[in-house]
Design brief:
Blueprint: E1 16-20, E2 31-32, E3 35-36, H1 37-47, E4 51-52, H2 59-64, E5 69-73, H3 81-94, E6 98-103, E7 109-114, E8 117-123, E9 130-138, H4 140-143, H5 154-163, E10 169-172, H6 183-192
Parallel strand pairs: 1-4, 1-5, 6-10
Antiparallel strand pairs: 2-3, 5-9, 6-9, 7-8
Helix pairs in contact: 1-3
């Protein structure tokens, strides 16, 4: 801090952040540590140093802001603020979109259509795969090239960015940044992130 009480980050644009809960059913409103998933995701995003904006803000308004945009999935509620900030800083350093990912731990098989229906084929190498988690950071320069708001499904948004010619970089999220897809997953994440005291 300098004599005026300002930190070294005060002159750095904060970026804008949206918490994505649309199309996720009621799960974003399940409780973890006594709070809704969507509230935990919003707090983490705010604590990461970005300015939260309302989901009703127009796409044109987001683009015209000239700010970087951090899209944070409400189903990754315990993603640490430091990781969200690291993704934003990496996107700024490279000028490329950045997405948080987790390693794939399930067995993944190739399925093809055959004469008798679907045919299960070879097992894919898990080490060559990642699961999209959160966040997806769009630098302002990339944001300005997009004709419309990205999909709220971050895996689809990443695929759309790649199809449009944007090289999307990945950063591995910590275990607490995993995405939940069921109440059982929420209970597991709750246990994983409960501090022993």
């Amino acid at each position: 801090m300098d004599d005026a009480g300002r930190g070294p980050w005060d002159d750095v644009p904060r970026g804008l952040g949206l918490v994505l809960d649309e199309g996720r059913g009621a799960l974003p409103y399940a409780l973890i540590h006594g709070e809704s998933l969507v509230a935990c995701a919003a707090w983490a995003l705010g604590d990461s140093g970005v300015d939260l904006v309302d989901a009703t803000i127009s796409w044109e308004g987001l683009v015209e802001s000239g700010e970087d945009l951090v899209l944070h999935d409400a189903l990754c509620p315990m993603t640490p603020p430091a990781f969200l900030a690291a993704c934003l800083m990496h996107a700024r350093a490279t000028g490329r979109p950045v997405v948080g990912t987790r390693p794939v731990t399930d067995t993944v098989k190739v399925v093809t259509a055959g004469e008798a229906g679907q045919v299960i084929g070879e097992t894919l190498d898990r080490d060559a795969l990642v699961a999209v988690a959160s966040p997806l950071v769009l630098p302002a320069a990339v944001l300005a090239t997009l004709p419309q708001r990205p999909s709220t499904d971050l895996a689809r948004a990443v695929a759309d960015l790649a199809a449009a010619g944007h090289a999307v970089e990945t950063l591995e999220a910590p275990p607490e940044g995993r995405r939940v897809s069921s109440p059982d997953d929420v209970r597991l994440l709750d246990a994983l992130t409960t501090r022993s005291g």
